[in-house]
Write a structure and sequence with these properties.
This protein is an alpha+beta fold. It contains 11 helices and 17 strands. Strand 3 and strand 4 form a beta hairpin.
């Protein structure tokens, strides 16, 4: 429940994210074949003529991604790609009452991008945010003849499964979007916006530097500060990271902002209840993950004992084989792993620095302080070995 005095927006959950890409066919293979999401809707000629964009919608249980590519240089998607590599353009919330959300946001000074649009049963509006070009959309959906199949946009054409498909069966058993993490150079500005405009509350925070674990190191290293804000009614969580001095610009958070040409969504976490089973098959499908050193697993029994986690069901050697991270406290824990960023996966800067996380919770609803540190250091090891990537963006203006 929200704190007394805070007017709830009526958020029911994250409906979908809209991901703008320059290679739609590559995304179709990634979500449809590797991630095994089902193609549920696609754009038709009328939509594409009106927007200058082509779109595909992919679903896995309660996780939904719309992938959009420009077909004309005067489209909004093309404008996004002139400023950024592939990345998240908007995050859409489902709300119980769109008019209530509008009035509440208006009182809080939200910057509306457009008036509410759509038909009965499927209406939405968007607001600007401090997160660069990322917009936040509020969507009211209902089961009416006008709202169609429940696709992201009623102008999109539903794709009906025939039962003969060999992909799109969600064999990785994703369940929902667990959380969304963004990187910016000014974390508190965005966190205050979540609080003052969206009505979110503080959930968790962390501050560390790589020198914390290397007290004898006098030069090098970098760090971050992170705050997680949440909507208690819907359990929607947003984490925001910023670089930490010393070596502010050497932080992988600052590097993300540089590679993304501004702040943006760094990763999205998908929940699953079967992470031990699905990670090997995700690797077999061609998905690549960040590596964790063997030293992490050598230290794991001691670290879990110090944090009061005595009920770990999984064998540590099997966790090491899968390179899964473990964290928790007081006999509640979580397991998680992070994929490679798209630019490394495709060896192309225009694919962007975004990546996905897979997470399974055994009672722990936090973000794993030790894992947060391990992820940060793993990304920095990866980036220290990178060669310069060449940007290949067909929508950059001459």
């Amino acid at each position: 429940m929200a704190k007394e005095g805070i007017v709830n927006l009526g958020i029911q959950g994250i409906d979908h994210v809209d991901f703008v890409v320059h290679d739609l066919e590559r995304s179709r293979k990634f979500y449809g074949e590797k991630m095994d999401f089902a193609l549920s809707a696609k754009s038709g000629s009328a939509y594409e003529e009106a927007t200058g964009e082509r779109a595909l919608v992919f679903d896995a249980a309660k996780a939904r991604v719309q992938v959009t590519a420009p077909t004309r240089k005067d489209s909004r998607a093309a404008a996004f790609l002139r400023s950024h590599p592939d990345g998240v353009r908007s995050i859409t919330f489902r709300v119980a009452d769109l008019d209530h959300a509008w009035k509440t946001l208006e009182k809080r000074g939200a910057n509306f991008i457009e008036e509410a649009t759509g038909k009965p049963g499927h209406r939405s509006f968007a607001i600007a945010s401090p997160l660069g070009d990322v917009q936040y959309v509020f969507l009211e959906k209902g089961k009416t003849p006008e709202s169609g199949s429940g696709a992201v946009d009623p102008r999109l054409t539903p794709v009906v499964a025939t039962g003969k498909e060999t992909t799109g069966r969600n064999r990785h058993r994703f369940t929902h979007v667990d959380h969304i993490t963004s990187n910016t150079l000014d974390m508190r500005n965005l966190s205050a916006w979540y609080r003052d405009v969206l009505g979110f509350e503080h959930f968790w925070d962390i501050r560390f530097h790589t020198r914390d674990s290397k007290p004898d190191q006098t030069t090098g290293g970098s760090g971050l500060t992170s705050i997680v804000m949440w909507d208690p009614s819907s359990n929607v969580k947003f984490a925001t990271n910023e670089p930490l001095r010393p070596n502010f610009y050497n932080s992988q958070i600052a590097k993300f902002v540089d590679d993304n040409h501004g702040p943006g969504v760094q990763h999205i976490a998908f929940g699953t209840g079967h992470i031990m089973d699905v990670i090997p098959q995700m690797r077999d499908a061609g998905l690549k993950f960040l590596e964790t050193p063997d030293a992490y697993y050598a230290m794991l029994p001691k670290r879990l004992a110090e944090r009061g986690v005595e009920n770990l069901k999984e064998d540590i050697e099997e966790l090491r084989r899968r390179r899964l991270l473990v964290d928790g406290r007081d006999n509640r824990y979580l397991l998680q792993i992070f994929m490679q960023e798209a630019a490394l996966l495709y060896n192309e800067a225009a694919a962007g620095p975004f990546f996905y996380e897979v997470i399974q919770r055994h009672g722990d609803q936090g973000f794993g302080e030790g894992n947060f540190r391990a992820l940060f250091e793993s990304i920095e090891r990866q980036q220290s070995g990178e060669t310069q990537r060449t940007v290949n963006n067909p929508y950059l203006m001459d």
